[in-house]
Design goal:
Number of helices: 11
Helix content: 55-70%
Shape: elongated
Number of domains: 2
Largest sheet: 2 strands, antiparallel
Order of helices and strands: HHHHHHHHHEEHH
Structural class: mainly alpha
Number of strands: 2
Radius of gyration: 25 Å
Oligomer: single chain
């Protein structure tokens, strides 16, 4: 399962981008709530929210923070930079950028992606090479390479893009677990506090 693009969208959501802030804010609010809850006002005591919600909210923020941190460290830079071929063109990227995204591949992975390009697209013919209508795609430290026709750049882009999505699957699953835990906790907080409110009506 290819999850990098889904993870990228979640990492850019307001929940994820603000999670680091909530890690510091939640303990402060919890402390304030405790202070307020222990002092009477006109013979009444009150609390901001259910006490256990602060603990759960803190863990939700931690889950989103860890998920986003792992995304930042583990997601291939190429996928962070572009979502589709339009982004690729807007950033004025070329076949050099495709090769650059593959340069740190192991020999096995380099041979695999070059083999996929050769199978799906094929090599450029002599005429294309002689007329400068061919592009060089390289991969890995050993520089496994293939020449493809210029008109097939968009196909090369999607092959490389899709291949990157299939890398580091363990990290993809771990990050999604963190995010799902975060969403699950938030839903539980919402449901439990709604239940409390309904019971007081």
């Amino acid at each position: 399962m290819k999850l990098w693009m889904t993870i990228k969208e979640i990492s850019k959501s307001k929940i994820s981008t603000s999670c680091a802030l909530w890690i510091f804010i939640v303990p402060a609010i919890a402390k304030l709530s405790t202070v307020i809850g222990t002092h009477g006002y006109n013979d009444f005591t009150f609390k901001l929210v259910a006490p256990h919600s602060f603990i759960l909210l803190y863990f939700a923020a931690i889950s989103f923070f860890l998920g986003t941190l792992l995304y930042t460290l583990a997601c291939p830079p190429f996928l962070k930079a572009v979502d589709n071929y339009n982004d690729f063109e807007k950033l004025k990227m070329t076949e050099f950028n495709l090769s650059q995204s593959l340069e740190k591949f192991s020999k096995i992975r380099a041979e695999e992606i070059i083999s996929i390009i050769r199978k799906k697209i094929g090599k450029a013919n002599i005429t294309s090479i002689d007329s400068d209508q061919a592009l060089l795609i390289e991969a890995g430290d050993s520089l496994d390479s293939i020449m493809v026709e210029s008109k097939n750049l968009i196909k090369c882009f999607w092959l490389v893009h899709d291949y990157h999505q299939s890398t580091r699957l363990v990290f993809q699953y771990i990050i999604m677990i963190f995010y799902l835990c975060g969403f699950g906790i938030l839903l539980y907080i919402l449901a439990s506090n709604l239940f409390i409110v309904l019971n007081t009506i």
